[in-house]
Amino acid sequence: APTVDEEALARCADEPIAVPGAVQPHGALLAVSEPDLAVVVASAGAADLFGGPVAGRAIDELLDPADAERLRAGLAGDLAELNPLRVRVGGEDVDLVVHRADGLLVTEWEPVRGAEEAGSAWHRRLPTVLQRLSASATLDELSGVLARDVRALTGFDRIMVYRFDAEWNGEVIAEDCRADLEPFLGLWFPASDIPAQARALYATNWMRLIPDATYRPVPLEPAMVGGRPLDLSGAMLRSVSPVHLEYLANMGVRASMSVSLVDRGKLWGLIACHHYAGPHRPSYTDRTAAEFLGRTASLLLPTKVDAGEQGGVVEVAQRQAQLAAVIGRTPRGLAAALTDGEVTALDLLPAAGAAVRLGGQLHLLGTTPPAERIGPLVGDLLAAGIRATDAVSRAVPAAAGLVATASGVLVEEVAGGRGDYLAWFRPETLREITWGGNPYTSKTAQTDAGPRLSPRRSFDAWSETVRERSQPWLDHEVAAARGLAALLTATAANRATEDDRLAT
Ligand code: BLA
Protein backbone atom coordinates (compact mmCIF):
# COMPACT_ATOMS: atom_id res chain seq x y z
CA ALA A 1 0.00 0.00 0.00
CA PRO A 2 1.16 3.54 -0.66
CA THR A 3 3.38 5.04 1.99
CA VAL A 4 2.68 8.74 1.73
CA ASP A 5 4.32 11.04 4.24
CA GLU A 6 3.08 9.81 7.63
CA GLU A 7 3.11 13.19 9.31
CA ALA A 8 1.13 14.83 6.53
CA LEU A 9 -1.32 11.96 6.71
CA ALA A 10 -1.77 12.47 10.44
CA ARG A 11 -2.56 16.17 9.75
CA CYS A 12 -5.25 15.07 7.34
CA ALA A 13 -6.84 12.99 10.02
CA ASP A 14 -6.59 15.94 12.45
CA GLU A 15 -8.83 18.22 10.44
CA PRO A 16 -11.86 18.84 12.68
CA ILE A 17 -14.50 18.02 10.08
CA ALA A 18 -17.28 17.79 12.69
CA VAL A 19 -16.91 21.47 13.65
CA PRO A 20 -16.19 23.41 10.43
CA GLY A 21 -18.05 26.50 11.72
CA ALA A 22 -19.87 26.73 8.41
CA VAL A 23 -22.62 25.16 6.35
CA GLN A 24 -23.26 24.63 2.65
CA PRO A 25 -25.40 27.27 0.95
CA HIS A 26 -28.33 25.12 -0.23
CA GLY A 27 -30.13 25.76 3.05
CA ALA A 28 -30.04 27.69 6.31
CA LEU A 29 -29.21 26.47 9.82
CA LEU A 30 -30.69 27.83 13.05
CA ALA A 31 -29.62 26.31 16.36
CA VAL A 32 -32.19 27.16 19.03
CA SER A 33 -32.52 26.74 22.77
CA GLU A 34 -35.37 24.72 24.29
CA PRO A 35 -38.14 25.06 25.19
CA ASP A 36 -38.35 28.70 24.05
CA LEU A 37 -37.03 27.84 20.53
CA ALA A 38 -35.03 31.11 20.50
CA VAL A 39 -32.28 31.35 17.89
CA VAL A 40 -28.79 31.07 19.43
CA VAL A 41 -26.71 30.38 16.29
CA ALA A 42 -27.67 31.15 12.69
CA SER A 43 -25.95 30.65 9.37
CA ALA A 44 -25.04 33.95 7.70
CA GLY A 45 -27.72 35.16 5.36
CA ALA A 46 -30.53 33.24 7.09
CA ALA A 47 -32.38 36.58 7.15
CA ASP A 48 -32.77 36.32 3.35
CA LEU A 49 -34.76 33.12 3.66
CA PHE A 50 -36.89 34.35 6.57
CA GLY A 51 -37.35 37.89 5.28
CA GLY A 52 -35.74 39.58 8.29
CA PRO A 53 -33.24 39.16 11.13
CA VAL A 54 -33.57 35.93 13.11
CA ALA A 55 -31.12 36.33 16.03
CA GLY A 56 -32.94 35.89 19.35
CA ARG A 57 -36.33 35.26 17.72
CA ALA A 58 -38.32 32.12 18.39
CA ILE A 59 -38.56 29.88 15.32
CA ASP A 60 -42.24 29.19 15.82
CA GLU A 61 -42.78 32.93 15.22
CA LEU A 62 -41.07 32.52 11.85
CA LEU A 63 -43.66 29.93 10.80
CA ASP A 64 -47.36 29.97 9.91
CA PRO A 65 -49.40 29.13 13.04
CA ALA A 66 -50.40 25.76 11.57
CA ASP A 67 -46.79 24.81 10.73
CA ALA A 68 -45.66 26.03 14.16
CA GLU A 69 -48.24 23.73 15.75
CA ARG A 70 -47.02 20.73 13.72
CA LEU A 71 -43.44 21.54 14.72
CA ARG A 72 -44.29 21.77 18.43
CA ALA A 73 -46.22 18.50 18.27
CA GLY A 74 -43.32 16.82 16.44
CA LEU A 75 -40.74 18.07 18.95
CA ALA A 76 -42.69 16.40 21.76
CA GLY A 77 -42.11 13.00 20.09
CA ASP A 78 -39.38 11.13 18.24
CA LEU A 79 -37.44 13.64 16.11
CA ALA A 80 -36.63 10.97 13.52
CA GLU A 81 -40.37 10.75 12.79
CA LEU A 82 -40.70 14.50 12.42
CA ASN A 83 -38.12 14.75 9.62
CA PRO A 84 -38.66 16.24 7.15
CA LEU A 85 -41.42 18.70 8.05
CA ARG A 86 -42.61 20.43 4.87
CA VAL A 87 -43.29 24.08 5.80
CA ARG A 88 -43.88 27.39 4.01
CA VAL A 89 -41.25 30.09 4.54
CA GLY A 90 -41.42 33.41 2.67
CA GLY A 91 -43.82 31.87 0.14
CA GLU A 92 -41.51 28.92 -0.54
CA ASP A 93 -41.76 25.22 0.24
CA VAL A 94 -39.00 24.26 2.66
CA ASP A 95 -38.00 20.88 4.13
CA LEU A 96 -37.30 21.43 7.83
CA VAL A 97 -35.00 18.80 9.39
CA VAL A 98 -34.11 18.84 13.10
CA HIS A 99 -31.76 17.05 15.47
CA ARG A 100 -30.20 17.79 18.87
CA ALA A 101 -26.50 18.61 19.39
CA ASP A 102 -24.50 20.42 22.11
CA GLY A 103 -27.70 20.97 24.15
CA LEU A 104 -29.35 22.86 21.32
CA LEU A 105 -32.03 21.99 18.82
CA VAL A 106 -30.35 22.27 15.42
CA THR A 107 -32.89 23.12 12.72
CA GLU A 108 -31.96 22.98 9.04
CA TRP A 109 -34.12 24.57 6.37
CA GLU A 110 -33.74 23.37 2.79
CA PRO A 111 -35.86 25.08 0.12
CA VAL A 112 -37.19 22.30 -2.10
CA ARG A 113 -36.98 24.44 -5.25
CA GLY A 114 -34.47 22.76 -7.52
CA ALA A 115 -34.59 19.49 -5.65
CA GLU A 116 -36.19 16.68 -7.64
CA GLU A 117 -39.71 15.91 -6.57
CA ALA A 118 -40.18 12.79 -8.69
CA GLY A 119 -39.42 10.56 -5.73
CA SER A 120 -42.86 9.35 -4.76
CA ALA A 121 -43.24 7.20 -7.89
CA TRP A 122 -39.98 5.54 -7.02
CA HIS A 123 -41.10 4.87 -3.46
CA ARG A 124 -43.84 2.66 -4.82
CA ARG A 125 -41.11 0.49 -6.38
CA LEU A 126 -39.30 0.03 -3.08
CA PRO A 127 -40.74 -3.43 -2.34
CA THR A 128 -39.38 -4.69 -5.70
CA VAL A 129 -35.97 -3.24 -4.97
CA LEU A 130 -35.88 -4.82 -1.51
CA GLN A 131 -36.86 -8.12 -3.10
CA ARG A 132 -33.95 -7.79 -5.58
CA LEU A 133 -31.49 -6.95 -2.80
CA SER A 134 -32.42 -9.89 -0.61
CA ALA A 135 -32.68 -12.34 -3.53
CA SER A 136 -29.14 -11.66 -4.72
CA ALA A 137 -26.97 -14.65 -3.89
CA THR A 138 -23.54 -13.06 -3.88
CA LEU A 139 -21.90 -9.87 -2.77
CA ASP A 140 -21.27 -8.98 -6.42
CA GLU A 141 -24.93 -9.33 -7.24
CA LEU A 142 -26.02 -7.33 -4.19
CA SER A 143 -23.58 -4.53 -5.06
CA GLY A 144 -24.75 -4.45 -8.67
CA VAL A 145 -28.40 -4.16 -7.66
CA LEU A 146 -27.50 -1.43 -5.19
CA ALA A 147 -25.61 0.63 -7.79
CA ARG A 148 -28.41 0.39 -10.38
CA ASP A 149 -31.25 1.11 -7.98
CA VAL A 150 -29.54 4.01 -6.18
CA ARG A 151 -28.84 5.53 -9.62
CA ALA A 152 -32.47 5.09 -10.70
CA LEU A 153 -33.54 6.72 -7.43
CA THR A 154 -31.17 9.67 -7.26
CA GLY A 155 -30.31 10.41 -10.90
CA PHE A 156 -26.55 10.79 -10.35
CA ASP A 157 -24.29 10.31 -13.41
CA ARG A 158 -22.26 7.60 -11.68
CA ILE A 159 -22.90 5.32 -8.70
CA MET A 160 -20.09 3.16 -7.32
CA VAL A 161 -20.08 0.57 -4.59
CA TYR A 162 -16.75 1.03 -2.89
CA ARG A 163 -15.33 -1.60 -0.51
CA PHE A 164 -12.53 -1.06 2.03
CA ASP A 165 -9.74 -3.61 2.56
CA ALA A 166 -8.01 -4.29 5.87
CA GLU A 167 -5.77 -1.20 5.47
CA TRP A 168 -8.65 1.06 4.37
CA ASN A 169 -7.63 1.17 0.74
CA GLY A 170 -10.75 0.68 -1.34
CA GLU A 171 -11.91 -0.96 -4.55
CA VAL A 172 -14.84 -0.07 -6.79
CA ILE A 173 -16.68 -3.44 -6.84
CA ALA A 174 -19.85 -2.36 -8.67
CA GLU A 175 -20.81 0.57 -10.82
CA ASP A 176 -23.68 1.99 -12.78
CA CYS A 177 -22.96 5.09 -14.87
CA ARG A 178 -23.86 7.17 -17.90
CA ALA A 179 -22.80 5.21 -21.00
CA ASP A 180 -20.36 7.88 -22.19
CA LEU A 181 -18.34 7.91 -18.95
CA GLU A 182 -15.14 5.96 -18.53
CA PRO A 183 -15.83 3.17 -16.03
CA PHE A 184 -14.12 3.13 -12.59
CA LEU A 185 -15.06 -0.50 -11.93
CA GLY A 186 -12.10 -2.46 -10.50
CA LEU A 187 -10.04 0.63 -9.66
CA TRP A 188 -8.39 0.95 -6.25
CA PHE A 189 -8.11 4.15 -4.19
CA PRO A 190 -5.64 4.66 -1.31
CA ALA A 191 -6.71 4.95 2.35
CA SER A 192 -5.55 8.59 2.45
CA ASP A 193 -8.45 9.61 0.16
CA ILE A 194 -10.82 9.17 3.12
CA PRO A 195 -8.91 9.89 6.35
CA ALA A 196 -9.60 8.24 9.72
CA GLN A 197 -11.79 10.93 11.28
CA ALA A 198 -14.00 10.96 8.18
CA ARG A 199 -14.33 7.17 8.32
CA ALA A 200 -15.19 7.40 12.02
CA LEU A 201 -17.89 9.97 11.28
CA TYR A 202 -19.27 7.92 8.41
CA ALA A 203 -19.57 4.81 10.59
CA THR A 204 -22.28 6.56 12.64
CA ASN A 205 -23.58 9.16 10.19
CA TRP A 206 -24.78 7.31 7.12
CA MET A 207 -25.21 9.99 4.50
CA ARG A 208 -23.57 13.15 3.16
CA LEU A 209 -24.38 15.35 0.21
CA ILE A 210 -22.42 18.04 -1.61
CA PRO A 211 -24.89 19.32 -4.25
CA ASP A 212 -22.32 21.75 -5.68
CA ALA A 213 -18.65 21.22 -4.88
CA THR A 214 -17.83 24.76 -6.08
CA TYR A 215 -19.89 26.30 -3.24
CA ARG A 216 -18.68 29.00 -0.88
CA PRO A 217 -19.07 28.00 2.80
CA VAL A 218 -21.59 30.05 4.81
CA PRO A 219 -20.25 30.87 8.30
CA LEU A 220 -22.24 30.31 11.49
CA GLU A 221 -22.89 33.35 13.68
CA PRO A 222 -21.76 33.48 16.40
CA ALA A 223 -18.80 31.20 15.65
CA MET A 224 -18.75 29.80 19.22
CA VAL A 225 -21.44 28.65 21.65
CA GLY A 226 -20.31 28.16 25.25
CA GLY A 227 -16.71 28.63 24.09
CA ARG A 228 -16.90 25.90 21.44
CA PRO A 229 -17.80 25.70 17.77
CA LEU A 230 -21.16 23.98 17.22
CA ASP A 231 -20.95 20.23 16.59
CA LEU A 232 -22.24 19.76 13.03
CA SER A 233 -21.49 16.04 12.77
CA GLY A 234 -25.23 15.31 12.56
CA ALA A 235 -26.11 18.26 10.30
CA MET A 236 -27.08 17.59 6.70
CA LEU A 237 -25.81 21.04 5.66
CA ARG A 238 -22.37 20.59 7.30
CA SER A 239 -19.67 22.30 5.26
CA VAL A 240 -17.16 19.65 4.15
CA SER A 241 -13.38 19.60 4.20
CA PRO A 242 -11.77 22.02 1.70
CA VAL A 243 -9.20 19.29 0.95
CA HIS A 244 -12.02 17.06 -0.19
CA LEU A 245 -13.51 19.84 -2.33
CA GLU A 246 -10.13 20.17 -4.05
CA TYR A 247 -10.14 16.39 -4.58
CA LEU A 248 -13.56 16.55 -6.23
CA ALA A 249 -12.47 19.47 -8.44
CA ASN A 250 -9.37 17.50 -9.54
CA MET A 251 -11.64 14.56 -10.37
CA GLY A 252 -14.00 16.79 -12.38
CA VAL A 253 -16.86 16.01 -9.98
CA ARG A 254 -19.45 18.80 -9.51
CA ALA A 255 -21.79 17.04 -7.05
CA SER A 256 -21.01 14.18 -4.69
CA MET A 257 -23.04 12.08 -2.31
CA SER A 258 -22.07 9.04 -0.30
CA VAL A 259 -23.98 6.54 1.79
CA SER A 260 -22.20 4.35 4.34
CA LEU A 261 -22.20 0.57 4.20
CA VAL A 262 -21.62 -0.80 7.68
CA ASP A 263 -21.09 -4.44 8.61
CA ARG A 264 -21.73 -5.20 12.29
CA GLY A 265 -20.75 -1.71 13.44
CA LYS A 266 -17.67 -1.35 11.24
CA LEU A 267 -17.52 0.83 8.13
CA TRP A 268 -17.38 -1.72 5.29
CA GLY A 269 -17.66 0.56 2.27
CA LEU A 270 -19.54 3.43 0.67
CA ILE A 271 -22.06 3.95 -2.06
CA ALA A 272 -20.25 6.83 -3.81
CA CYS A 273 -22.24 9.03 -6.18
CA HIS A 274 -20.87 11.53 -8.71
CA HIS A 275 -22.44 14.15 -10.95
CA TYR A 276 -20.33 15.90 -13.57
CA ALA A 277 -22.27 18.27 -15.81
CA GLY A 278 -23.60 20.54 -13.07
CA PRO A 279 -24.90 20.70 -9.52
CA HIS A 280 -27.23 17.88 -8.46
CA ARG A 281 -29.51 17.78 -5.46
CA PRO A 282 -31.91 14.88 -4.94
CA SER A 283 -34.72 15.76 -2.54
CA TYR A 284 -34.40 15.02 1.17
CA THR A 285 -36.91 12.19 0.78
CA ASP A 286 -35.00 10.57 -2.09
CA ARG A 287 -31.74 10.91 -0.17
CA THR A 288 -33.21 9.19 2.84
CA ALA A 289 -34.58 6.47 0.55
CA ALA A 290 -31.02 5.94 -0.75
CA GLU A 291 -29.82 5.82 2.86
CA PHE A 292 -32.53 3.25 3.58
CA LEU A 293 -31.23 1.07 0.73
CA GLY A 294 -27.70 1.43 2.12
CA ARG A 295 -28.90 0.36 5.56
CA THR A 296 -30.80 -2.59 4.13
CA ALA A 297 -27.83 -3.72 2.04
CA SER A 298 -25.64 -3.34 5.15
CA LEU A 299 -27.84 -5.73 7.09
CA LEU A 300 -27.65 -8.20 4.22
CA LEU A 301 -23.84 -8.05 3.85
CA PRO A 302 -23.04 -10.88 6.27
CA THR A 303 -25.56 -13.14 4.54
CA LYS A 304 -24.07 -12.83 1.03
CA VAL A 305 -21.31 -15.08 -0.23
CA ASP A 306 -18.11 -13.29 -1.08
CA ALA A 307 -16.71 -14.37 -4.46
CA GLY A 308 -13.28 -14.73 -2.82
CA GLU A 309 -14.66 -17.25 -0.33
CA GLN A 310 -17.08 -19.25 -2.46
CA GLY A 311 -16.66 -22.96 -1.92
CA GLY A 312 -13.79 -22.53 0.53
CA VAL A 313 -16.08 -22.16 3.52
CA VAL A 314 -17.51 -25.66 3.15
CA GLU A 315 -14.16 -27.30 2.44
CA VAL A 316 -12.45 -25.75 5.46
CA ALA A 317 -15.36 -26.77 7.69
CA GLN A 318 -15.07 -30.38 6.42
CA ARG A 319 -11.33 -30.50 7.12
CA GLN A 320 -11.89 -29.04 10.55
CA ALA A 321 -14.42 -31.79 11.33
CA GLN A 322 -12.03 -34.49 10.02
CA LEU A 323 -9.17 -33.21 12.17
CA ALA A 324 -11.43 -33.03 15.22
CA ALA A 325 -12.41 -36.68 14.66
CA VAL A 326 -8.77 -37.74 14.38
CA ILE A 327 -7.89 -35.87 17.56
CA GLY A 328 -10.75 -37.56 19.41
CA ARG A 329 -9.67 -41.02 18.16
CA THR A 330 -6.00 -40.63 19.03
CA PRO A 331 -5.50 -41.41 22.72
CA ARG A 332 -1.93 -40.18 22.92
CA GLY A 333 0.26 -37.88 20.88
CA LEU A 334 -1.79 -34.97 19.65
CA ALA A 335 1.13 -33.89 17.45
CA ALA A 336 1.07 -37.24 15.61
CA ALA A 337 -2.68 -36.84 15.04
CA LEU A 338 -2.06 -33.52 13.31
CA THR A 339 1.02 -34.41 11.29
CA ASP A 340 1.07 -38.17 10.47
CA GLY A 341 -2.44 -38.99 9.37
CA GLU A 342 -4.25 -38.84 6.07
CA VAL A 343 -5.48 -35.35 6.89
CA THR A 344 -2.92 -33.05 8.51
CA ALA A 345 -2.97 -29.56 9.96
CA LEU A 346 -1.67 -28.35 6.58
CA ASP A 347 -4.88 -29.57 4.93
CA LEU A 348 -7.07 -27.45 7.17
CA LEU A 349 -6.86 -24.44 4.87
CA PRO A 350 -5.07 -23.39 1.69
CA ALA A 351 -1.42 -22.81 2.67
CA ALA A 352 1.99 -23.93 1.41
CA GLY A 353 3.35 -24.95 4.81
CA ALA A 354 2.42 -25.42 8.44
CA ALA A 355 4.23 -25.68 11.76
CA VAL A 356 2.83 -27.60 14.72
CA ARG A 357 4.57 -27.04 18.05
CA LEU A 358 3.09 -29.20 20.80
CA GLY A 359 4.72 -30.22 24.06
CA GLY A 360 7.75 -28.20 23.06
CA GLN A 361 8.32 -30.27 19.87
CA LEU A 362 8.25 -28.54 16.48
CA HIS A 363 6.85 -30.46 13.48
CA LEU A 364 6.97 -29.01 9.98
CA LEU A 365 4.64 -29.75 7.07
CA GLY A 366 5.05 -28.58 3.46
CA THR A 367 7.09 -25.51 2.55
CA THR A 368 8.04 -23.46 5.59
CA PRO A 369 10.81 -21.09 6.64
CA PRO A 370 13.86 -22.87 8.19
CA ALA A 371 12.93 -24.43 11.56
CA GLU A 372 15.21 -22.13 13.58
CA ARG A 373 13.54 -19.01 12.15
CA ILE A 374 10.00 -20.06 13.02
CA GLY A 375 10.15 -19.69 16.82
CA PRO A 376 11.41 -16.08 16.74
CA LEU A 377 8.95 -15.19 13.95
CA VAL A 378 5.95 -16.56 15.83
CA GLY A 379 7.19 -14.99 19.07
CA ASP A 380 7.39 -11.54 17.47
CA LEU A 381 3.96 -11.86 15.88
CA LEU A 382 2.30 -12.95 19.12
CA ALA A 383 4.08 -10.20 21.07
CA ALA A 384 2.78 -7.66 18.54
CA GLY A 385 -0.75 -9.05 18.91
CA ILE A 386 -0.81 -10.23 15.28
CA ARG A 387 -2.64 -13.51 14.55
CA ALA A 388 -2.86 -13.21 10.78
CA THR A 389 -0.86 -11.15 8.33
CA ASP A 390 -0.50 -11.23 4.55
CA ALA A 391 2.44 -8.80 4.69
CA VAL A 392 4.83 -10.27 7.23
CA SER A 393 7.80 -8.09 6.20
CA ARG A 394 5.83 -5.03 7.25
CA ALA A 395 4.61 -6.64 10.48
CA VAL A 396 7.75 -7.76 12.36
CA PRO A 397 11.55 -7.52 12.03
CA ALA A 398 12.04 -11.28 12.57
CA ALA A 399 10.53 -11.78 9.10
CA ALA A 400 13.56 -10.41 7.26
CA GLY A 401 14.36 -12.61 4.27
CA LEU A 402 11.36 -14.89 4.74
CA VAL A 403 8.88 -13.38 2.26
CA ALA A 404 9.38 -16.14 -0.34
CA THR A 405 7.97 -18.86 1.96
CA ALA A 406 6.13 -16.81 4.56
CA SER A 407 4.77 -13.51 3.21
CA GLY A 408 1.61 -14.69 4.89
CA VAL A 409 1.55 -16.14 8.41
CA LEU A 410 -1.46 -17.28 10.43
CA VAL A 411 -0.69 -18.29 14.02
CA GLU A 412 -2.72 -19.56 16.97
CA GLU A 413 -1.40 -20.30 20.43
CA VAL A 414 -2.21 -23.66 21.99
CA ALA A 415 -2.63 -23.87 25.78
CA GLY A 416 -1.23 -20.34 26.13
CA GLY A 417 1.99 -19.77 28.04
CA ARG A 418 3.85 -22.99 27.18
CA GLY A 419 5.16 -21.77 23.84
CA ASP A 420 3.01 -24.21 21.87
CA TYR A 421 1.33 -23.03 18.68
CA LEU A 422 -0.05 -23.84 15.24
CA ALA A 423 1.16 -21.76 12.30
CA TRP A 424 0.41 -21.71 8.57
CA PHE A 425 2.54 -20.08 5.87
CA ARG A 426 1.73 -18.66 2.44
CA PRO A 427 4.35 -17.60 -0.14
CA GLU A 428 4.62 -14.20 -1.78
CA THR A 429 2.03 -13.80 -4.54
CA LEU A 430 2.69 -10.98 -6.97
CA ARG A 431 -0.51 -9.10 -7.72
CA GLU A 432 -1.22 -6.42 -10.29
CA ILE A 433 -3.51 -3.71 -9.01
CA THR A 434 -4.79 -0.63 -10.81
CA TRP A 435 -5.15 2.55 -8.81
CA GLY A 436 -7.45 5.42 -9.75
CA GLY A 437 -4.44 7.72 -10.19
CA ASN A 438 -0.88 7.18 -8.99
CA PRO A 439 -1.33 7.24 -5.19
CA TYR A 440 2.32 8.13 -4.59
CA THR A 441 1.97 11.55 -6.20
CA SER A 442 -0.14 13.19 -3.48
CA LYS A 443 1.82 16.31 -2.61
CA THR A 444 2.91 17.35 0.84
CA ALA A 445 2.76 21.12 1.28
CA GLN A 446 4.09 23.11 4.26
CA THR A 447 1.38 25.07 6.08
CA ASP A 448 1.31 27.03 9.36
CA ALA A 449 -0.10 23.96 11.07
CA GLY A 450 2.65 21.69 9.70
CA PRO A 451 2.88 19.51 6.60
CA ARG A 452 -0.42 18.89 4.85
CA LEU A 453 -1.20 16.43 2.14
CA SER A 454 -3.05 17.71 -0.90
CA PRO A 455 -5.10 15.50 -3.21
CA ARG A 456 -3.47 14.14 -6.36
CA ARG A 457 -4.30 15.86 -9.66
CA SER A 458 -4.59 12.92 -12.00
CA PHE A 459 -7.00 10.04 -11.58
CA ASP A 460 -5.85 8.19 -14.69
CA ALA A 461 -5.55 4.43 -14.18
CA TRP A 462 -2.09 3.56 -12.85
CA SER A 463 -0.95 -0.04 -12.40
CA GLU A 464 1.46 -1.41 -9.87
CA THR A 465 2.78 -4.84 -8.93
CA VAL A 466 2.26 -5.49 -5.25
CA ARG A 467 5.15 -7.45 -3.70
CA GLU A 468 5.89 -9.09 -0.34
CA ARG A 469 2.27 -10.05 0.14
CA SER A 470 0.49 -13.40 0.17
CA GLN A 471 -3.13 -14.24 -0.56
CA PRO A 472 -5.06 -12.73 2.34
CA TRP A 473 -6.32 -14.93 5.20
CA LEU A 474 -10.09 -15.03 5.06
CA ASP A 475 -12.22 -14.66 8.17
CA HIS A 476 -13.50 -18.23 8.04
CA GLU A 477 -9.93 -19.55 7.70
CA VAL A 478 -8.78 -17.59 10.74
CA ALA A 479 -11.85 -18.86 12.61
CA ALA A 480 -11.04 -22.49 11.64
CA ALA A 481 -7.43 -22.12 12.86
CA ARG A 482 -8.69 -20.64 16.11
CA GLY A 483 -11.20 -23.48 16.46
CA LEU A 484 -8.54 -26.15 15.98
CA ALA A 485 -6.21 -24.48 18.50
CA ALA A 486 -9.05 -24.22 21.03
CA LEU A 487 -9.89 -27.91 20.55
CA LEU A 488 -6.23 -28.89 21.12
CA THR A 489 -6.06 -26.70 24.22
CA ALA A 490 -9.20 -28.27 25.68
CA THR A 491 -8.13 -31.82 24.75
CA ALA A 492 -4.68 -31.39 26.27
CA ALA A 493 -6.23 -30.03 29.49
CA ASN A 494 -8.73 -32.93 29.69
CA ARG A 495 -6.04 -35.53 29.18
CA ALA A 496 -3.82 -33.93 31.80
CA THR A 497 -6.72 -34.18 34.28
CA GLU A 498 -7.31 -37.83 33.34
CA ASP A 499 -3.62 -38.59 33.80
CA ASP A 500 -3.77 -37.00 37.28
CA ARG A 501 -6.78 -39.15 38.16
CA LEU A 502 -5.07 -42.33 36.96
CA ALA A 503 -1.98 -41.48 38.98
CA THR A 504 -3.89 -41.14 42.29
C1 BLA B 1 -14.07 12.60 2.19
N1 BLA B 1 -13.30 11.20 0.28
C2 BLA B 1 -14.27 11.69 1.13
C3 BLA B 1 -15.53 11.11 0.77
C4 BLA B 1 -15.31 10.29 -0.30
C5 BLA B 1 -13.93 10.37 -0.61
C6 BLA B 1 -16.40 9.45 -0.98
C7 BLA B 1 -16.86 11.35 1.46
C8 BLA B 1 -17.49 12.66 1.04
C9 BLA B 1 -18.33 12.55 -0.19
O1 BLA B 1 -19.38 11.88 -0.16
O2 BLA B 1 -17.97 13.16 -1.23
C10 BLA B 1 -13.20 9.69 -1.62
N2 BLA B 1 -14.73 9.59 -3.54
C11 BLA B 1 -13.69 9.14 -2.81
C12 BLA B 1 -13.14 8.00 -3.44
C13 BLA B 1 -13.88 7.77 -4.54
C14 BLA B 1 -14.88 8.77 -4.59
C15 BLA B 1 -11.97 7.22 -2.98
O3 BLA B 1 -15.76 8.86 -5.45
C16 BLA B 1 -13.62 6.67 -5.48
C17 BLA B 1 -14.39 6.39 -6.46
N3 BLA B 1 -8.67 13.47 0.59
C18 BLA B 1 -7.45 13.34 -0.06
C19 BLA B 1 -6.41 13.71 0.84
C20 BLA B 1 -7.03 14.07 2.03
C21 BLA B 1 -8.46 13.92 1.86
C22 BLA B 1 -4.95 13.68 0.50
O4 BLA B 1 -7.30 12.96 -1.21
C23 BLA B 1 -6.43 14.53 3.29
C24 BLA B 1 -5.57 15.55 3.38
C25 BLA B 1 -9.39 14.23 2.86
N4 BLA B 1 -11.61 13.19 2.14
C26 BLA B 1 -10.80 13.96 2.92
C27 BLA B 1 -11.58 14.49 4.01
C28 BLA B 1 -12.88 14.04 3.84
C29 BLA B 1 -12.89 13.23 2.65
C30 BLA B 1 -11.04 15.35 5.15
C31 BLA B 1 -14.08 14.34 4.71
C32 BLA B 1 -15.00 15.32 4.06
C33 BLA B 1 -16.08 15.71 5.03
O5 BLA B 1 -17.02 14.91 5.25
O6 BLA B 1 -15.99 16.83 5.57
Shape designation = elongated
Name the structural class.
alpha+beta
**Beta strand count:** 22
* CATH topology assignment of the largest domain: Beta-Lactamase
Q: How many domains is the backbone divided into?
A: 3
Q: Per CATH, which architecture of the largest domain?
A: 2-Layer Sandwich
* Beta-strand share of residues: 25-35%
Order of strands across the biggest sheet?
A: 1-11-3-2-6-5-4
Low-confidence stretches: none
What top-tier CATH class of the largest domain fits best?
Alpha Beta
Mean pLDDT: 91
| SS element count, helices | 16
Give the C-alpha Rg.
Answer: 28 Å
Q: Roughly how much helix do the residues carry, as a percent range?
A: 25-40%
Small molecules held by this entry: biliverdine IX alpha
N-to-C CA distance:
59 Å
Largest sheet: 7 strands, antiparallel
CATH superfamily of the largest domain: GAF domain
Topology:
Layout: H1 6-14, E1 22-23, E2 28-32, E3 39-43, H2 46-50, H3 65-75, H4 79-82, E4 85-89, E5 92-101, E6 104-111, H5 119-124, H6 126-135, H7 139-154, E7 158-164, E8 170-177, E9 188-189, H8 196-204, E10 207-210, E11 218-221, H9 242-251, E12 255-263, E13 266-275, H10 284-300, H11 312-329, H12 334-339, E14 353-358, E15 361-366, H13 371-383, E16 388-389, H14 392-395, H15 403-406, E17 408-414, E18 420-426, E19 431-436, E20 443-447, E21 450-454, E22 461-466, H16 475-503
The chain binds biliverdine IX alpha.
Model description:
The protein is an alpha+beta fold and 504 residues long. The protein folds into three domains: 6-19 and 116-307, GAF domain (Beta-Lactamase); 22-111, PAS domain (Beta-Lactamase, 2-Layer Sandwich); 311-430 and 468-503, PHY domain (Beta-Lactamase). 34% of the residues lie in helices and 26% in strands. The strands form five sheets. Strands 1-11-3-2-6-5-4 form a seven-stranded antiparallel beta sheet. A hairpin with a 5-residue loop joins strand 7 (158-164) and strand 8. Helix 7 (139-154) runs antiparallel to helix 10 (284-300). It is elongated. The model has no long low-confidence stretch (mean pLDDT 91). The chain binds biliverdine IX alpha (BLA). Biliverdine IX alpha binds at residues 12, 15, 17, 160, 162, 170, 172, 184, 189, 192-195, 198, 208, 210, 240-241, 243-244, 247, 256-258, 270, 272, 274, 442, 453, 455.
